[in-house]
Amino acid sequence: MHYLYLAVIAAVVLGVIVGFAVPDLAEELKPLGTGFVALIKMMISPIIFCTIVLGIGSVAKAAKVGKVGVLALGYFLLMSTFALAIGLLVGNMLHPGEGMHLDPSAAESVRAQAEGGEGTVDFLLGIIPETMVSAFTAGSVLQTLLVALLAGFALQKMGRTGEPILRGIEHVQRLVFRILAMIMWAAPVGAFGAIAAVVGETGWDALRSLAVIMIGFYLTCLVFVFGVLGAALWIGARISVFKLLRYLGREFLLIVSTSSSESALPRLIAKMEHLGVSKPVVGITVPTGYSFNLDGTAIYLTMATLFIATAQGSPLGVGEQISLLVFMIIASKGAAGVSGAGIATLAGGLQSHRPELVDGVGFILGIDRFMSEARALTNFAGNAVATVLIGSWTKEFDREKAHRVFAGKDPFNEATLVDDHKPPAETEPAREPVHA
Q1: In the chain, how many domains are there?
Q2: Which helix (H) or strand (E) holds 63?
Q3: What is the DSSP letter of 313?
Q4: Mean pLDDT split into 10-residue runs, the chain, 436 residues
Q5: Does residue 397 sit in helix, strand or coil?
Q6: What pLDDT is stored for residue 341 in this prediction?
Q7: Has residue 325 been placed in a domain?
Q8: Which CA distances in Å does 31 have to 28, 201, 305, 418?
Q9: Looking at beta carbons, which pairs linking 341-344 to residues 24 or more positions away fall under 8 Å?
Q10: pLDDT for 328
Q11: Over the Cα atoms of the chain, what is R_g?
């Protein structure tokens, strides 16, 4: 995906040049961005179904391991809430997208819907599909979510009998994400069309708004990592977040080069064990965290949603922000290491609550690759901090060894990083990990 990253950068630069040089032609390129968004929308229902069903199974397995699993899930929920709150706070302070007024017809339709919208009964009935299969063809994300929740809890109740079905869904998920990866190769074309059209229509306002959200997002991630996570790590384990992140320096470089925290998963498991966290705690916390501890993703989804709504002249109310973003956090579970999953989740959340705003995903497409790095780095840092904290709280963390490691007296041996340092078999002995 390294070449794809460079291609997106080149496409964004070219789109800006075309937008300024020939704005009339640039506006005609909008269908390129719209078409790419349509491809992403095509993948929303299968992605949500697979990730929710497998996510419910992960919760069940984590809870069964007792104190460590319950503590991990509680911590992940708390940190996701903090990340969500910080993203909302910063987003409402910056007002990203303000002044762009893109596609005012969409804003008018939203206002009309808000004034004379459906009643509560009609809304609830709209969530229930005619059949289980029609949920996937009707284009309703909420219907897909309902079916996925029912399927997930049903498979949970089936126990071992449902294991073959879960394995089958894991294979379907791999297929879906492989298709998504293929679609992402069209990202440069979509980014070129979307950026060119936006710059051609709004000029410097577009670049200023994109710069505001991108810089604001990076700064918010820095504040979260060194402020919130740093304070939690020091209070809970008496460990400096600066020392921990320096110890994981090579892993951060690997993530930057791939824009995915999944690429560093085996190394994180090995290094957390070397740091002094017990093998069972690492085996439970790290794989579960990769599905449920998505701090960077929470911040990204928050700020990107506010940007898209404001840019189209239809800002979201506080209550609407919270309900929409809670939905997207749930829908993103299990897709932390998949390139393009952030855009798919963003489109899915907008489709479920404000379908008039979905085309606005194209506005942020050009900078999504830049933001994905900070998103992945924040997710990774959050999981590293969570592993140390949970190890400390359960008295399964050798603090003395950690200080020796930080001091360079017990260096990590790269030769120990073998294939068995993958999402460990202790959490699910009879199954492969979801992200192979």
Answers
A1: 1
A2: helix 30-64
A3: T
A4: 70 83 80 78 77 69 67 85 84 71 46 40 61 73 77 82 86 84 80 77 71 88 93 92 91 71 76 87 79 81 83 75 72 54 72 74 71 85 93 89 87 58 41 35
A5: strand
A6: 62
A7: yes
A8: 7, 14, 21, 47
A9: 341/47, 341/177, 341/180, 342/297, 342/300, 342/301, 342/368, 342/372, 342/375, 343/40, 343/368, 344/40, 344/43, 344/44, 344/47, 344/180
A10: 66
A11: 22
d(CA 299, CA 382): 12
435 found inside a domain: no
Q: Report the first-to-last Cα separation within the chain, whole angstroms.
A: 17
DSSP string, 70-107: HHHHHHHHHHHHHHHHHHHHHHHHH-TTTT----HHHH
DSSP helix/strand/coil, 398:
coil
Provide the CA 13 distance to its chain's centre, in angstroms. Answer: 25
Q: How far apart (Å, rounded) are the C-alpha atoms in residues 72 and 64?
A: 12
Amino acid making up residue 65: V
Is position 217 within any domain? yes
> Which CATH number do you get for residue 313?
1.10.3860
User: What percentage of the chain's residues is helix, strand, coil (to nearest 5)?
Assistant: 80, 0, 20
C-alpha span between 147 and 49 (Å, rounded): 8
**CA 181, 182, 186 angle in degrees (round to 5)?**
105
Whether 310 is in a domain gets the answer: yes
Predicted local distance difference test score (pLDDT) of residue 241: 93
Q: What is the pLDDT of residue 126?
A: 61
Which range of residues forms the domain containing residue 63?
A: 2-21+34-416
Task: Report pLDDT for 385.
Answer: 94
> Number of H helices and number of E strands within the chain?
21, 0
Q: What pLDDT sits at residue 77? A: 82
Neighbours of 169 (CB within 10 A): 23
The encoded tokens of residue 82 equal 């903090």
CB 141 within 8 Å of CB 388: no
